Structures are given as C-alpha cells and as structure tokens.
Amino acid sequence: MHIGVIGAWQLGATLAEWCVESGHDITVTARHPDRLGQIVDHLGGRGAAMPVAAAVSFADVVLFAPNWESAQEAIDLAGSTLIGKIVINATNPPAPAPGGRSGFEQLIDWAPDAHWAKALNTLPTTVLSLRRGHDPLLAEFVCTDMPDARRTASTIIRELGFAPFYAGGAEAARLVEPGVPLQLTEVDVCRATFVLAEAMAARQ
Ligand SMILES: NC(=O)c1ccc[n+]([C@@H]2O[C@H](COP(=O)([O-])OP(=O)(O)OC[C@H]3O[C@@H](n4cnc5c(N)ncnc54)[C@H](OP(=O)(O)O)[C@@H]3O)[C@@H](O)[C@H]2O)c1
Q1: Rounded to a whole number, what is the distance in angstroms from the first to the last CA of the chain?
Q2: Higher-scoring residue by pLDDT: 180, 16
C-alpha cells in the first residue's frame, strides 16, 4: 500500500519505519516537509517527503499523527484530498472536551468525508517498540464506524506486530484517549475483552 504519514516526528516517524519494514511505500509530511530529510533517509528508498495535500493524494491510507494543537491545521492543509480516504488517527487531545467528547469525534466533524479510525494512540513509542511482535501480543484498540477503515487499521496493526481489538464505533474513542483508563495501559490481547468491559462499565 501507499501510506501517507501526516506529522512525522516521534510517533509518525516510528510508524513510518515500521510500515516500510512491512513492505509499504511511505510519504511523510509536516508543515515543513523539507525538514524531514533525516526521516526519509531512514526509510531505505521507500519513502519521500511531500507537502500535506500531495502526501494524502499519494496515499491509499493515511496515518494521522500531528500534535493535537495542529490537527485542524493539518486537516485544512489536506483539504479535499481527504475525501473518501481511510485515515487512522493516533493524535490525542490533552484532555477530553467538556461533556466527555473525544478528540476523534472532533476530527470527524472537521473532515466528515474521510473514513476515520482511531488506533495506535494509547501507548508511547518506547513501550510499542518493546512489545512489538512479542507474545503475549499487545492489544491495539480500534474505534470506527467505517468497515473499510476497520479492516485496513486491523491489517496494519497486525503487520506492525500487535493485535487489533475492535472497541466500537467513533464514540468508543472516549475510552482510549487521555483522561480515561485505557490510555497509557498495556493490555495483552488475551485480557482485552475483560479490560474493555471494565472500562465501559466504569463510564456508566
Ligand atoms: N509520541 C508518542 O509516543 C505517541 C504515542 C501515542 C500517541 N501519540 C499522539 O500522537 C500525536 C503526535 O505525537 P508526537 O509525540 O509524535 O508529536 P511530535 O513529535 O511533536 O510530532 C508532531 C509532528 O506533527 C507535525 N505537524 C505539526 N503541525 C502540523 C500540520 N499542521 N500539518 C502537518 N504536520 C504537522 C510536526 O512537524 P512540523 O512542526 O514541522 O509541522 C511534527 O512532525 C500527539 O497527539 C500524541 O498524543 C504520541
């Protein structure tokens, strides 16, 4: 697949490298793609840096990983190229919005024609690097209402060495962003059903 990574620094650059290992071609992007040369050098000839809209146009699927404060700007830079595109969102707001609404639901409001999934957002790259590919596999929660986004996110998560675990539709993102128990919690896939059920019960 062609994968576009919006926000290619700590998380995005790491995911880009792992996606190259899985055989994908990568475009990394940020506000200043000319500053991403070092990241591209690590992608072994399978990566390039481009402006945001060009990177999204190139991509079959987008990994969305800018910092939260820049998320709306990144969406604006992508513009109409996001229409119909599968976008896997790893970006977190610092805290839930008033009323408990998630950042993910906000992103869907900003770009309603993209096919969004929330995933790869609960743990730092240090932990992901240690757990990647090791048994028991680490569960990676996936939240989406879009079947194609669920399928693609699950495939990529599996390829990266984790176990995709469907947590529910977009509203389930309220369970995995900062300020709730599933954020910063390592969950082995064999315990994921139990841990998710507990998190849901705690919200009621
Ligand atoms: N780091 C982790 O381990 C980790 C793990 C899980 C989730 N997350 C979440 O992922 C998000 C990113 O975290 P991070 O630590 O990777 O942040 P980071 O190191 O600050 O990287 C953010 C990237 O976004 C780019 N960016 C900023 N504004 C942009 C825009 N308008 N359009 C396109 N790109 C833009 C930045 O480049 P320019 O400034 O040059 O544009 C930079 O490359 C956060 O919401 C964080 O909560 C991070």
Answers
A1: 40
A2: 16
- CA of residue 137 to ligand 1 center, whole Å: 26
- 160: Cα within 13 Å, side-chain hemisphere: 25
pLDDT exceeds 90 at position 177: yes
pLDDT for position 181: 84
Residue 122, both tokens: 């609960």
* Cis peptide upstream of residue 136 (ω within 30 degrees of 0): yes
Backbone Cα Rg of the chain: 16
Is a pLDDT exceeding 90 seen at residue 164? yes
Nearest CA to ligand 1 atom 22: 66
Nearest to 162 by CA among 121, 104, 117: 121
Query: 106 by DSSP, 3-state: which?
Result: helix
Q: How far is the CA of 69 from the centre of ligand 1 (A)?
A: 9
Distance (Å, whole) CA 46 – CA 144: 29
Task: Tell me how far the alpha carbon of residue 6 lies from the centroid of ligand 1, in angstroms.
Answer: 8
Output phi, psi for 168, to 5 deg: 135, -170
Which residue CA neighbors atom 7 of ligand 1 most closely?
121
pTM: 0.98
Query: Which has the closest alpha carbon to 32: 77, 84, 72?
Result: 77
The percentage of the chain sitting over the pLDDT mark of 70, rounded to a whole number, equals 100
